[in-house]
Write a structure and sequence with these properties.
- The complex is a heterodimer.
- By secondary structure, chain A is an alpha+beta fold.
- Chain A has a single domain, classed as Aldehyde Oxidoreductase, domain 3, CATH 3.90.1170.40.
- In chain A, 33% of the residues lie in helices and 34% in strands.
- A four-stranded mixed sheet of chain A has the order 1-6-8-2, sandwiched between helices.
- Chain A is globular.
- Chain B is α+β, with helices and mostly antiparallel strands.
- The chains are: A alpha+beta, B alpha+beta.
- At the A-B interface, strand 5, helix 2, helix 3 and strand 9 of A face strand 4 of B.
Protein backbone atom coordinates (compact mmCIF):
# COMPACT_ATOMS: atom_id res chain seq x y z
CA UNK A 1 0.00 0.00 0.00
CA UNK A 2 1.18 3.53 -0.69
CA UNK A 3 0.00 6.84 0.75
CA UNK A 4 0.99 10.43 -0.04
CA UNK A 5 -0.25 12.77 2.65
CA UNK A 6 0.30 16.05 4.44
CA UNK A 7 -0.44 14.75 7.94
CA UNK A 8 1.90 12.86 10.26
CA UNK A 9 1.71 9.09 10.84
CA UNK A 10 2.08 6.84 13.87
CA UNK A 11 4.73 4.18 13.28
CA UNK A 12 3.22 1.69 15.74
CA UNK A 13 -0.26 1.96 14.29
CA UNK A 14 1.04 1.61 10.73
CA UNK A 15 3.15 -1.49 11.45
CA UNK A 16 0.36 -3.16 13.42
CA UNK A 17 -1.96 -2.45 10.50
CA UNK A 18 0.42 -4.32 8.17
CA UNK A 19 0.74 -7.46 10.26
CA UNK A 20 -2.68 -7.69 11.94
CA UNK A 21 -4.39 -10.93 10.97
CA UNK A 22 -1.49 -12.24 8.89
CA UNK A 23 0.35 -14.85 10.92
CA UNK A 24 2.45 -15.83 7.93
CA UNK A 25 4.57 -12.75 8.65
CA UNK A 26 7.70 -13.61 10.61
CA UNK A 27 9.65 -10.40 10.04
CA UNK A 28 8.71 -6.78 9.57
CA UNK A 29 11.38 -4.22 8.76
CA UNK A 30 10.77 -0.48 8.64
CA UNK A 31 12.69 2.70 7.84
CA UNK A 32 11.60 6.19 8.91
CA UNK A 33 13.17 9.32 7.40
CA UNK A 34 13.29 12.44 9.59
CA UNK A 35 13.93 16.13 8.90
CA UNK A 36 17.40 17.16 10.13
CA UNK A 37 18.30 20.64 11.36
CA UNK A 38 21.50 20.77 9.30
CA UNK A 39 22.26 20.68 5.57
CA UNK A 40 25.99 20.81 4.99
CA UNK A 41 27.08 23.59 7.35
CA UNK A 42 23.79 25.50 7.26
CA UNK A 43 21.08 25.45 9.90
CA UNK A 44 17.69 24.53 8.55
CA UNK A 45 14.62 26.11 10.10
CA UNK A 46 12.08 24.09 8.17
CA UNK A 47 11.49 22.67 4.72
CA UNK A 48 8.67 22.44 2.24
CA UNK A 49 8.18 19.30 0.18
CA UNK A 50 6.64 19.74 -3.26
CA UNK A 51 5.48 16.76 -5.32
CA UNK A 52 3.81 15.82 -8.59
CA UNK A 53 0.31 14.57 -7.71
CA UNK A 54 -0.57 11.58 -9.86
CA UNK A 55 2.96 10.71 -10.91
CA UNK A 56 4.03 10.42 -7.27
CA UNK A 57 1.47 7.73 -6.56
CA UNK A 58 2.27 5.96 -9.81
CA UNK A 59 6.02 5.96 -9.11
CA UNK A 60 5.57 4.63 -5.58
CA UNK A 61 3.21 1.88 -6.79
CA UNK A 62 5.78 0.81 -9.40
CA UNK A 63 8.59 0.67 -6.83
CA UNK A 64 6.37 -1.35 -4.50
CA UNK A 65 5.42 -3.76 -7.31
CA UNK A 66 9.09 -4.25 -8.21
CA UNK A 67 9.89 -5.16 -4.60
CA UNK A 68 7.10 -7.75 -4.63
CA UNK A 69 8.51 -9.22 -7.86
CA UNK A 70 11.93 -9.49 -6.28
CA UNK A 71 11.18 -10.86 -2.79
CA UNK A 72 8.45 -13.09 -1.28
CA UNK A 73 6.68 -10.30 0.62
CA UNK A 74 3.49 -10.55 2.65
CA UNK A 75 2.96 -6.80 2.88
CA UNK A 76 4.62 -3.48 2.07
CA UNK A 77 3.83 0.09 3.03
CA UNK A 78 5.16 3.40 1.74
CA UNK A 79 4.00 6.69 3.28
CA UNK A 80 5.51 9.95 2.06
CA UNK A 81 4.53 13.37 3.40
CA UNK A 82 4.46 16.71 1.59
CA UNK A 83 4.02 20.33 2.65
CA UNK A 84 5.87 22.17 5.41
CA UNK A 85 7.97 20.08 7.81
CA UNK A 86 10.21 21.03 10.70
CA UNK A 87 13.38 19.42 12.11
CA UNK A 88 12.47 16.21 13.89
CA UNK A 89 9.34 15.64 11.81
CA UNK A 90 8.81 12.30 10.09
CA UNK A 91 8.99 12.60 6.27
CA UNK A 92 8.78 9.05 5.00
CA UNK A 93 8.04 5.51 6.12
CA UNK A 94 8.84 2.37 4.16
CA UNK A 95 8.18 -1.08 5.57
CA UNK A 96 8.30 -4.63 4.25
CA UNK A 97 6.94 -7.79 5.86
CA UNK A 98 7.88 -11.33 4.96
CA UNK A 99 8.01 -14.84 6.40
CA UNK A 100 11.73 -14.40 7.10
CA UNK A 101 13.99 -11.52 7.96
CA UNK A 102 16.28 -11.43 4.90
CA UNK A 103 13.49 -10.51 2.49
CA UNK A 104 12.06 -7.86 4.81
CA UNK A 105 15.45 -6.20 5.45
CA UNK A 106 16.44 -6.22 1.79
CA UNK A 107 13.07 -5.09 0.43
CA UNK A 108 12.90 -2.24 2.95
CA UNK A 109 16.32 -1.01 1.84
CA UNK A 110 15.34 -1.37 -1.82
CA UNK A 111 12.12 0.62 -1.35
CA UNK A 112 13.85 3.64 0.18
CA UNK A 113 16.77 3.57 -2.29
CA UNK A 114 14.46 3.63 -5.31
CA UNK A 115 12.04 6.09 -3.73
CA UNK A 116 14.86 8.58 -3.35
CA UNK A 117 15.79 8.51 -7.03
CA UNK A 118 12.40 7.95 -8.71
CA UNK A 119 9.57 9.48 -6.66
CA UNK A 120 8.91 13.07 -7.82
CA UNK A 121 9.45 15.04 -4.61
CA UNK A 122 11.54 18.19 -4.18
CA UNK A 123 12.74 19.72 -0.92
CA UNK A 124 12.92 23.47 -0.43
CA UNK A 125 14.90 24.29 2.72
CA UNK A 126 14.67 27.49 4.78
CA UNK A 127 18.30 28.49 5.34
CA UNK A 128 19.83 31.65 6.89
CA UNK A 129 20.47 32.81 3.30
CA UNK A 130 16.85 32.28 2.26
CA UNK A 131 14.98 29.33 0.71
CA UNK A 132 17.16 26.85 -1.20
CA UNK A 133 16.18 23.86 -3.35
CA UNK A 134 18.08 20.78 -2.23
CA UNK A 135 20.45 19.30 -4.83
CA UNK A 136 20.20 15.63 -5.73
CA UNK A 137 23.07 13.53 -4.40
CA UNK A 138 25.23 11.30 -6.57
CA UNK A 139 25.39 8.87 -3.64
CA UNK A 140 21.64 8.23 -4.07
CA UNK A 141 22.20 7.12 -7.69
CA UNK A 142 25.05 4.92 -6.50
CA UNK A 143 22.76 3.35 -3.89
CA UNK A 144 20.31 2.35 -6.63
CA UNK A 145 23.07 1.03 -8.89
CA UNK A 146 23.98 -1.40 -6.13
CA UNK A 147 20.69 -3.24 -6.76
CA UNK A 148 21.74 -4.01 -10.32
CA UNK A 149 19.47 -1.50 -12.09
CA UNK A 150 21.26 1.68 -13.03
CA UNK A 151 18.65 3.12 -15.39
CA UNK A 152 16.35 5.47 -13.50
CA UNK A 153 14.79 7.00 -16.58
CA UNK A 154 12.21 4.23 -16.93
CA UNK B 1 -2.43 20.23 -27.54
CA UNK B 2 0.26 19.43 -24.97
CA UNK B 3 -0.16 19.87 -21.24
CA UNK B 4 3.08 21.20 -19.77
CA UNK B 5 3.88 21.05 -16.06
CA UNK B 6 6.82 22.57 -14.21
CA UNK B 7 8.02 21.78 -10.69
CA UNK B 8 10.41 23.21 -8.08
CA UNK B 9 12.97 25.68 -9.46
CA UNK B 10 11.97 24.92 -13.04
CA UNK B 11 8.49 26.26 -12.12
CA UNK B 12 10.01 29.31 -10.42
CA UNK B 13 12.04 30.15 -13.52
CA UNK B 14 9.26 29.65 -16.09
CA UNK B 15 6.91 31.56 -13.79
CA UNK B 16 4.08 29.07 -14.27
CA UNK B 17 3.12 25.67 -12.83
CA UNK B 18 1.20 24.51 -15.90
CA UNK B 19 0.18 25.61 -19.35
CA UNK B 20 -1.14 24.26 -22.62
CA UNK B 21 0.75 24.42 -25.88
CA UNK B 22 -0.33 23.61 -29.42
CA UNK B 23 2.10 20.93 -30.58
CA UNK B 24 4.45 22.78 -32.98
CA UNK B 25 5.04 21.14 -36.37
CA UNK B 26 8.78 20.89 -35.85
CA UNK B 27 8.53 19.08 -32.51
CA UNK B 28 8.74 15.31 -32.41
CA UNK B 29 10.84 14.70 -29.28
CA UNK B 30 11.31 16.15 -25.81
CA UNK B 31 14.59 17.71 -27.00
CA UNK B 32 12.73 19.51 -29.83
CA UNK B 33 10.16 20.75 -27.33
CA UNK B 34 12.87 22.16 -25.07
CA UNK B 35 14.30 24.09 -28.01
CA UNK B 36 10.88 25.67 -28.61
CA UNK B 37 10.36 26.44 -24.90
CA UNK B 38 13.79 28.10 -24.55
CA UNK B 39 12.67 30.71 -27.09
CA UNK B 40 9.54 31.62 -25.08
CA UNK B 41 11.39 34.13 -22.89
CA UNK B 42 14.19 34.75 -20.44
CA UNK B 43 12.64 32.69 -17.64
CA UNK B 44 12.31 29.69 -19.94
CA UNK B 45 15.86 30.16 -21.21
CA UNK B 46 17.03 30.12 -17.56
CA UNK B 47 14.94 27.06 -16.73
CA UNK B 48 16.41 25.10 -19.64
CA UNK B 49 19.87 26.62 -19.42
CA UNK B 50 21.51 23.26 -18.81
CA UNK B 51 20.12 19.96 -20.10
CA UNK B 52 22.04 18.16 -17.37
CA UNK B 53 19.95 19.70 -14.60
CA UNK B 54 16.45 19.12 -15.95
CA UNK B 55 14.53 15.84 -15.87
CA UNK B 56 11.39 15.04 -17.84
CA UNK B 57 8.35 12.82 -17.52
CA UNK B 58 5.89 12.12 -20.33
CA UNK B 59 2.48 10.95 -19.18
CA UNK B 60 3.91 10.55 -15.66
CA UNK B 61 6.77 8.22 -16.63
CA UNK B 62 10.43 9.23 -16.38
CA UNK B 63 11.85 9.38 -19.94
CA UNK B 64 14.95 10.60 -21.77
CA UNK B 65 15.12 13.68 -24.00
CA UNK B 66 14.90 11.48 -27.11
CA UNK B 67 11.38 10.34 -26.11
CA UNK B 68 8.63 11.17 -28.64
CA UNK B 69 5.94 13.67 -27.78
CA UNK B 70 2.52 13.80 -29.38
CA UNK B 71 -0.70 15.76 -29.06
CA UNK B 72 -2.50 14.97 -25.82
CA UNK B 73 0.68 14.19 -23.85
CA UNK B 74 1.32 15.52 -20.37
CA UNK B 75 4.96 16.62 -20.29
CA UNK B 76 6.54 17.60 -16.96
CA UNK B 77 9.91 19.26 -16.40
CA UNK B 78 11.65 19.27 -13.02
CA UNK B 79 15.02 19.08 -11.26
CA UNK B 80 16.45 15.70 -10.16
CA UNK B 81 14.19 14.44 -7.36
CA UNK B 82 15.12 14.90 -3.70
CA UNK B 83 12.47 13.08 -1.68
CA UNK B 84 12.87 10.50 1.02
Amino acid sequence: MIRVQEQDFDLGDELRGMSDGNHGIGGLCSFVGLVRDMAGDANIGAMTLEHYPGMTERALEEIEAEAHDRWPLEATLIIHRYGRLEPGDQIVLVAAASAHREASFEACHYLIDFLKTRAPFWKLEDTPDGPKWVDARASDDAAVARWGKVDNTQ
Amino acid sequence: MLKLLYFAWVRERTGTASEELELPDNVSTVADLITVLRAKGDGYADAFESDDLVRVAVNQNHVGFDHKVQAGDEVAFFPPVTGG
